[in-house]
Amino acid sequence: MTQLSYRQLLDRHRPRLDDPSEAELLLVRALGKSRAWLYAHYDDPVTHGPETERFLAWIEQRAAGQPVAYLLGEREFYGRSFQVSPAVLIPRPETELLVDLALELSLSPPCSALDIGTGSGAIALTLAAERPDWHLTATDLSEAALRIAAGNRDQLGLSKVELLRGDLFEAIGDRTFDLIVSNPPYIAEGDPHLDRGDLRFEPAMALSSGQDGLALIDRLIEEAPSHLKRGGFLLIEHGHDQAEQLRRRLAAAGFAQAQSWRDLAGIERVSGACWPG
Protein backbone atom coordinates (compact mmCIF):
# COMPACT_ATOMS: atom_id res chain seq x y z
CA MET A 1 0.00 0.00 0.00
CA THR A 2 1.40 3.40 -1.01
CA GLN A 3 2.23 5.61 1.95
CA LEU A 4 0.46 8.97 1.95
CA SER A 5 2.32 12.26 1.92
CA TYR A 6 1.25 15.09 4.23
CA ARG A 7 -0.29 16.82 1.22
CA GLN A 8 -2.36 13.72 0.39
CA LEU A 9 -3.36 13.27 4.01
CA LEU A 10 -4.75 16.81 4.08
CA ASP A 11 -6.43 16.43 0.70
CA ARG A 12 -8.20 13.32 1.99
CA HIS A 13 -9.60 14.97 5.14
CA ARG A 14 -10.20 18.62 4.18
CA PRO A 15 -13.57 17.86 2.52
CA ARG A 16 -14.89 16.50 5.81
CA LEU A 17 -14.76 19.90 7.48
CA ASP A 18 -17.01 22.92 6.95
CA ASP A 19 -13.86 25.04 6.95
CA PRO A 20 -11.23 22.98 5.08
CA SER A 21 -8.40 25.25 6.27
CA GLU A 22 -8.87 23.89 9.79
CA ALA A 23 -7.40 20.56 8.70
CA GLU A 24 -3.98 22.16 8.25
CA LEU A 25 -4.18 23.84 11.66
CA LEU A 26 -5.11 20.56 13.34
CA LEU A 27 -2.30 18.74 11.58
CA VAL A 28 0.49 21.13 12.57
CA ARG A 29 -0.76 21.22 16.14
CA ALA A 30 -1.00 17.43 16.30
CA LEU A 31 2.54 17.14 14.94
CA GLY A 32 3.86 19.87 17.21
CA LYS A 33 5.34 21.57 14.15
CA SER A 34 5.03 24.96 12.47
CA ARG A 35 3.22 25.67 9.22
CA ALA A 36 6.61 26.49 7.69
CA TRP A 37 7.79 22.97 8.56
CA LEU A 38 4.66 21.46 7.03
CA TYR A 39 5.05 23.44 3.79
CA ALA A 40 8.67 22.29 3.54
CA HIS A 41 7.62 18.64 4.04
CA TYR A 42 4.31 18.61 2.16
CA ASP A 43 5.40 15.77 -0.11
CA ASP A 44 7.26 13.75 2.50
CA PRO A 45 5.68 10.44 3.54
CA VAL A 46 3.60 10.62 6.71
CA THR A 47 5.28 9.06 9.71
CA HIS A 48 2.58 7.11 11.51
CA GLY A 49 2.57 7.40 15.27
CA PRO A 50 0.70 9.06 18.17
CA GLU A 51 0.79 12.43 16.42
CA THR A 52 -0.99 11.11 13.33
CA GLU A 53 -3.53 9.29 15.46
CA ARG A 54 -4.19 12.52 17.34
CA PHE A 55 -4.78 14.34 14.04
CA LEU A 56 -7.21 11.69 12.82
CA ALA A 57 -9.08 11.78 16.14
CA TRP A 58 -9.32 15.56 15.97
CA ILE A 59 -10.67 15.36 12.42
CA GLU A 60 -13.40 12.98 13.61
CA GLN A 61 -14.29 15.25 16.53
CA ARG A 62 -14.26 18.42 14.43
CA ALA A 63 -16.38 16.78 11.73
CA ALA A 64 -18.88 16.02 14.51
CA GLY A 65 -18.93 19.71 15.46
CA GLN A 66 -16.51 19.93 18.37
CA PRO A 67 -15.01 23.46 18.51
CA VAL A 68 -11.40 23.72 17.41
CA ALA A 69 -10.60 25.72 20.55
CA TYR A 70 -11.71 22.83 22.76
CA LEU A 71 -9.73 20.30 20.71
CA LEU A 72 -6.56 22.38 20.98
CA GLY A 73 -7.28 23.51 24.53
CA GLU A 74 -6.61 27.15 23.77
CA ARG A 75 -7.84 30.26 21.98
CA GLU A 76 -6.13 33.54 21.15
CA PHE A 77 -7.64 36.72 22.55
CA TYR A 78 -6.16 40.22 22.28
CA GLY A 79 -2.86 38.75 21.09
CA ARG A 80 -2.49 36.28 23.95
CA SER A 81 -3.15 32.56 24.20
CA PHE A 82 -5.75 31.46 26.76
CA GLN A 83 -6.43 27.94 27.95
CA VAL A 84 -10.03 26.87 27.37
CA SER A 85 -12.13 23.80 28.05
CA PRO A 86 -15.83 22.90 27.78
CA ALA A 87 -16.17 24.48 31.23
CA VAL A 88 -15.79 27.98 29.77
CA LEU A 89 -17.11 30.08 26.93
CA ILE A 90 -14.67 30.33 24.03
CA PRO A 91 -13.30 33.91 23.86
CA ARG A 92 -14.47 35.65 20.70
CA PRO A 93 -13.03 38.54 18.66
CA GLU A 94 -16.10 40.74 19.21
CA THR A 95 -15.44 40.71 22.96
CA GLU A 96 -12.21 42.58 22.30
CA LEU A 97 -14.41 45.66 21.83
CA LEU A 98 -15.33 45.45 25.52
CA VAL A 99 -11.63 45.46 26.41
CA ASP A 100 -10.91 48.33 24.01
CA LEU A 101 -13.63 50.46 25.59
CA ALA A 102 -12.43 49.74 29.10
CA LEU A 103 -8.87 50.70 28.18
CA GLU A 104 -10.04 53.97 26.62
CA LEU A 105 -11.68 55.18 29.84
CA SER A 106 -10.00 57.98 31.76
CA LEU A 107 -9.70 56.34 35.17
CA SER A 108 -7.55 57.89 37.87
CA PRO A 109 -5.04 55.57 39.55
CA PRO A 110 -5.21 53.48 41.55
CA CYS A 111 -8.04 52.02 39.46
CA SER A 112 -10.01 49.00 40.62
CA ALA A 113 -11.93 46.91 38.09
CA LEU A 114 -14.29 43.96 38.44
CA ASP A 115 -15.09 41.33 35.79
CA ILE A 116 -18.37 39.50 36.44
CA GLY A 117 -18.65 35.98 35.00
CA THR A 118 -14.99 35.80 34.04
CA GLY A 119 -14.97 32.29 32.53
CA SER A 120 -11.49 31.72 31.12
CA GLY A 121 -10.41 35.06 32.59
CA ALA A 122 -9.76 36.51 29.12
CA ILE A 123 -11.25 39.94 29.85
CA ALA A 124 -9.88 40.45 33.36
CA LEU A 125 -6.42 39.08 32.57
CA THR A 126 -6.16 41.14 29.39
CA LEU A 127 -7.02 44.30 31.30
CA ALA A 128 -4.46 43.38 33.96
CA ALA A 129 -1.79 42.78 31.32
CA GLU A 130 -2.56 46.01 29.46
CA ARG A 131 -2.88 48.12 32.63
CA PRO A 132 -0.41 46.74 35.22
CA ASP A 133 -1.31 49.54 37.66
CA TRP A 134 -4.99 48.49 37.80
CA HIS A 135 -6.30 46.22 40.54
CA LEU A 136 -8.37 43.47 38.92
CA THR A 137 -10.93 41.21 40.58
CA ALA A 138 -12.88 38.55 38.67
CA THR A 139 -15.77 36.37 39.79
CA ASP A 140 -17.54 33.33 38.45
CA LEU A 141 -20.12 30.92 39.80
CA SER A 142 -18.38 27.93 38.22
CA GLU A 143 -15.51 26.38 40.15
CA ALA A 144 -14.36 24.59 36.98
CA ALA A 145 -14.23 27.90 35.12
CA LEU A 146 -12.18 29.50 37.90
CA ARG A 147 -9.66 26.67 37.65
CA ILE A 148 -9.20 27.51 33.96
CA ALA A 149 -8.92 31.22 34.81
CA ALA A 150 -6.33 30.46 37.50
CA GLY A 151 -4.29 28.46 35.00
CA ASN A 152 -4.35 31.39 32.58
CA ARG A 153 -3.43 33.79 35.38
CA ASP A 154 -0.38 31.66 36.20
CA GLN A 155 0.55 31.19 32.55
CA LEU A 156 0.50 34.95 31.95
CA GLY A 157 2.30 35.82 35.19
CA LEU A 158 -0.58 37.93 36.51
CA SER A 159 -0.66 36.65 40.08
CA LYS A 160 -2.15 39.88 41.44
CA VAL A 161 -5.49 39.28 39.72
CA GLU A 162 -8.01 38.18 42.35
CA LEU A 163 -10.34 35.29 41.44
CA LEU A 164 -13.44 34.74 43.56
CA ARG A 165 -16.28 32.23 43.37
CA GLY A 166 -19.82 33.50 43.66
CA ASP A 167 -22.99 34.54 41.87
CA LEU A 168 -22.55 38.03 40.39
CA PHE A 169 -21.49 40.29 43.32
CA GLU A 170 -21.97 37.67 46.03
CA ALA A 171 -18.25 37.12 46.67
CA ILE A 172 -17.17 40.76 46.97
CA GLY A 173 -19.25 41.92 49.92
CA ASP A 174 -19.66 45.70 50.00
CA ARG A 175 -16.53 46.55 48.00
CA THR A 176 -16.79 49.21 45.28
CA PHE A 177 -14.95 49.61 41.97
CA ASP A 178 -14.10 52.24 39.39
CA LEU A 179 -15.11 49.90 36.58
CA ILE A 180 -17.33 46.84 36.23
CA VAL A 181 -17.25 44.82 33.00
CA SER A 182 -19.16 41.72 32.01
CA ASN A 183 -19.83 39.44 29.09
CA PRO A 184 -22.83 37.70 30.66
CA PRO A 185 -25.16 35.10 29.14
CA TYR A 186 -27.56 37.00 26.91
CA ILE A 187 -29.14 34.49 24.50
CA ALA A 188 -32.83 33.79 25.03
CA GLU A 189 -33.65 30.31 26.29
CA GLY A 190 -34.95 28.25 23.42
CA ASP A 191 -33.16 30.31 20.77
CA PRO A 192 -32.43 27.96 17.84
CA HIS A 193 -28.85 29.24 17.63
CA LEU A 194 -28.10 27.31 20.82
CA ASP A 195 -28.41 24.10 18.79
CA ARG A 196 -25.96 25.20 16.10
CA GLY A 197 -22.22 25.46 15.66
CA ASP A 198 -19.87 25.85 18.61
CA LEU A 199 -22.73 26.92 20.90
CA ARG A 200 -23.89 23.28 21.09
CA PHE A 201 -20.76 22.43 23.06
CA GLU A 202 -20.32 25.50 25.25
CA PRO A 203 -21.64 25.72 28.84
CA ALA A 204 -25.34 26.60 28.84
CA MET A 205 -25.02 28.77 31.95
CA ALA A 206 -22.59 31.03 30.05
CA LEU A 207 -24.91 31.42 27.07
CA SER A 208 -28.59 31.83 27.91
CA SER A 209 -30.50 33.73 30.56
CA GLY A 210 -34.28 33.88 30.72
CA GLN A 211 -36.95 34.06 28.05
CA ASP A 212 -35.55 37.25 26.53
CA GLY A 213 -31.88 36.66 27.36
CA LEU A 214 -31.80 39.64 29.70
CA ALA A 215 -32.48 38.04 33.09
CA LEU A 216 -28.87 38.20 34.29
CA ILE A 217 -28.23 41.55 32.65
CA ASP A 218 -31.20 42.99 34.54
CA ARG A 219 -29.65 41.78 37.80
CA LEU A 220 -26.29 43.26 36.82
CA ILE A 221 -27.82 46.68 36.16
CA GLU A 222 -29.85 46.53 39.37
CA GLU A 223 -26.99 45.46 41.63
CA ALA A 224 -24.02 47.26 40.06
CA PRO A 225 -24.71 50.70 41.61
CA SER A 226 -24.00 49.29 45.07
CA HIS A 227 -20.54 48.29 43.87
CA LEU A 228 -19.54 51.29 41.78
CA LYS A 229 -17.68 54.31 43.05
CA ARG A 230 -19.05 57.73 42.20
CA GLY A 231 -18.24 58.33 38.54
CA GLY A 232 -17.57 54.63 37.97
CA PHE A 233 -18.45 52.85 34.74
CA LEU A 234 -20.43 49.75 33.85
CA LEU A 235 -19.76 48.05 30.48
CA ILE A 236 -21.81 45.05 29.31
CA GLU A 237 -21.54 42.94 26.17
CA HIS A 238 -24.91 41.86 24.77
CA GLY A 239 -26.79 40.47 21.79
CA HIS A 240 -27.15 42.11 18.39
CA ASP A 241 -30.71 43.33 19.06
CA GLN A 242 -30.51 44.27 22.75
CA ALA A 243 -28.69 47.62 22.75
CA GLU A 244 -31.77 49.84 22.91
CA GLN A 245 -33.22 47.80 25.76
CA LEU A 246 -29.98 48.07 27.72
CA ARG A 247 -29.79 51.83 27.28
CA ARG A 248 -33.35 52.17 28.57
CA ARG A 249 -32.68 49.90 31.53
CA LEU A 250 -29.47 51.71 32.43
CA ALA A 251 -31.20 55.09 32.35
CA ALA A 252 -34.12 53.79 34.41
CA ALA A 253 -31.67 52.48 37.03
CA GLY A 254 -30.18 55.96 37.47
CA PHE A 255 -27.09 55.65 35.28
CA ALA A 256 -25.94 58.63 33.23
CA GLN A 257 -24.63 58.86 29.66
CA ALA A 258 -25.97 55.45 28.62
CA GLN A 259 -24.69 54.57 25.17
CA SER A 260 -23.80 51.66 22.89
CA TRP A 261 -20.80 50.86 20.71
CA ARG A 262 -20.56 48.89 17.48
CA ASP A 263 -18.17 46.05 16.77
CA LEU A 264 -16.22 45.61 13.53
CA ALA A 265 -19.29 44.06 11.91
CA GLY A 266 -21.27 47.23 12.63
CA ILE A 267 -23.39 45.55 15.33
CA GLU A 268 -24.14 47.35 18.59
CA ARG A 269 -22.29 44.88 20.80
CA VAL A 270 -21.47 46.72 24.05
CA SER A 271 -23.53 49.15 26.10
CA GLY A 272 -22.50 51.07 29.17
CA ALA A 273 -22.96 54.08 31.36
CA CYS A 274 -21.54 56.10 34.22
CA TRP A 275 -22.80 55.90 37.80
CA PRO A 276 -23.22 59.49 39.06
CA GLY A 277 -23.35 58.43 42.70
From TrEMBL:
GO terms for molecular function: nucleic acid binding; peptide chain release factor N(5)-glutamine methyltransferase activity. Transmembrane segments: none annotated. It catalyses: L-glutaminyl-[peptide chain release factor] + S-adenosyl-L-methionine = N(5)-methyl-L-glutaminyl-[peptide chain release factor] + S-adenosyl-L-homocysteine + H(+). It is an enzyme of class 2 (transferase). The keyword Nucleotide-binding does not apply. Its EC number is 2.1.1.297. GO terms for biological process: methylation. This is Release factor glutamine methyltransferase. It comes from Wenzhouxiangella marina.
